[in-house]
Write a structure and sequence with these properties.
The structure is a single chain. The protein contains nine helices and 17 strands. Helix 2 runs parallel beside helix 6, helix 3 packs across helix 4 and helix 7 crosses helix 8. It is an alpha+beta fold. A hairpin with a 2-residue loop joins strand 4 and strand 5. Strands 9-12-10-15-17-16 form a six-stranded antiparallel beta barrel. Strands 4-5 form a two-stranded antiparallel ribbon. It is globular. The chain has two domains: 118 residues, Probable inorganic polyphosphate/atp-NAD kinase, domain 1 (Rossmann fold, 3-Layer(aba) Sandwich); 172 residues, Tumour Suppressor Smad4 (Sandwich), CATH 2.60.200.
Length: 310
């Protein structure tokens, strides 16, 4: 007997294509799952409450239709007051977003039919989640979970640029937004502490707290990261000038950047990041710009079930 299933759809994901494709998506869902309820989100963060209500009503499988930001909201809905509501509830992913980086670490195919086969036929993997404590853009202290990658520094600036273009209804590639953000970026001097060990203060451009391997629409920021090893792969990149940045930027997409002398990879369970000079340092979780430093990131080992080919 198939588990009680709730489908949560972000119709605006993939630049509105999810709404236009919904009839096709719904038909494929019915081919694999005979009975399910579905809801469309209408505003940011709504998927969190939809998920909580569905789990409390007995749903055992939550299927998200959207990109990484949608999956982040749904994942946060698995928790209430930082505690998981039902450890047996499982996430299924139908990738339909402009950014679908998490599925690469979960070995979920991007195609509609193939991703549905994973939900219907594959087993469930118990993966780690990250828990971030940070300052929101409105100035409040808040906690939020993430599945894939959290990032401070340039990454947060890039997402802010992406959001600005979206509000202006302008089309711009992620790489173009990356380039624009870099031009205006002022490198930040940060104090980092990993599992209680303090690092020397440095001027950093990027700090990625990686649970999964890929972020930023295909950047292989931490090619060896594992979703279930109880550790973050922390990749920090020191300040670079424009020519050096351009010369090395494509290496991140290939996953060959770790040998660069300004790039360091460390593994830990907890990282604290604090600006030394009081500068604003933006952070993003799973592709959503949600606040700024100071922040603490902690791994919660093997705490979350997801349908995958792991």
């Amino acid at each position: 007997m198939f588990p009680k299933t709730q489908v949560i759809v972000n119709p605006e994901s993939n630049k509105g294509r999810t709404r236009r494709r919904w009839r096709e998506i719904k038909e494929v869902l019915h081919n694999h799952i005979k009975e399910f309820r579905y809801e469309f989100t209408e505003k940011p963060l709504q998927a969190i409450e939809m998920t909580r209500e569905a789990i409390k009503s007995g749903s055992e499988l939550i299927i998200g239709v959207g990109g990484d930001g949608t999956m982040n909201e749904i994942a946060n809905g698995f928790f209430e007051n930082t505690r998981i509501i039902n450890p047996a509830t499982t996430l299924g992913i139908v990738p339909s977003g402009t950014g679908c980086d998490l599925i690469k670490s979960l070995n979920i195919p991007a195609g509609l039919n193939d991703s549905m086969k994973v939900i219907a036929e594959a087993g469930s993997a118990c993966i780690d989640v990250g828990r971030a404590s940070f300052i929101t853009n409105e100035g409040r202290r808040e906690e939020r979970f993430f599945l894939n990658v959290a990032d401070f520094g340039l990454g947060g600036e890039v997402i802010r640029e992406v959001n600005r273009k979206r509000l202006e209804r302008k089309t711009s590639s992620y790489f173009r937004c990356l380039y624009t953000a870099f031009i205006h970026y002022k490198h930040k001097r940060l104090s980092l502490k990993l599992d209680g060990r303090e690092l020397a203060d440095e001027d950093y451009m990027i700090g990625a707290i990686a649970n999964g391997r890929v972020f930023g629409k295909g950047m292989k920021i931490s090619p060896e990261a594992k979703l279930d090893d109880g550790l973050f792969d922390v990749v920090v990149i020191k300040s670079m000038k424009m020519l050096e940045f351009l010369k090395n930027s494509l290496k991140v997409y290939r996953g060959t950047h770790l040998s660069h002398p300004k790039v360091s990879l460390m593994r830990c369970r907890r990282i604290e990041a604090v600006p030394v000079t009081g500068q604003e340092v933006l952070i993003e979780l799973d592709g959503e710009q949600i606040g700024r430093l100071p922040a603490t990131f902690e791994v919660v080992p093997q705490h979350f079930l997801v349908k995958s080919n792991l």
